[in-house]
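Data deposition worksheet. Section B asks for the primary sequence of the deposited chain exactly as it was used as input, without tags or linkers unless they were present during the calculation. Section C holds the resulting structure in token form. Section D is free text for depositor observations; keep each observation to a single sentence. Incomplete worksheets are returned to the depositor.
Section A, Depositor: J.P.
Section B:
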Amino acid sequence: MATRRLEPLAWLLFSAGGVLAALALPVLVFLFGIAYPLGWLQAPSYAHVLALVKKGFYNGLRFHRAVPNFVVQVGDPQSRNMTLQEWWGRSGSGKPIGVAEITKKRTHVRGAIGMGHSGSAKDADSQFYITLRNAPELNGKYTVFGQVIKGMEVAAKLQKADILKKASVKE
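Section C:
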């Protein structure tokens, strides 16, 4: 049976134009540490994103997708370069997770954090999104691996090209 870990928590500090620049508020997210019965290993998406956060991969990336009342998405390293904007959303860390971890137990409620992919969940890499509303149409298609527990009002105001200034882990 899968278990849920209480730590770590990840802080995502967004730096954005307009109102968010003045706020500079962090968004606190909980990443589900799913343990598998055989060997109690952490879920690959959880471990992968956590390792990228610890390496500073997400620091300075821009949100390449922002659909009001739906999702905001980040995780493409090309988004650091404004001249490549038409290519944003097509790249990742270069190390896909290689397994689909879709479960009916974790659904796309408001504030869910899921792994973005271009067609196959096993190809998910570094891109993740935050749902801005309940999005049941995404259930069964994408892996949910976390939940915003503080700062949803900040996430809801994010726009395309806003910057994820810093992502860090509180262990």
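Section D:
The radius of gyration is 15 Å.
The first strand starts at residue 9 and ends at 15.
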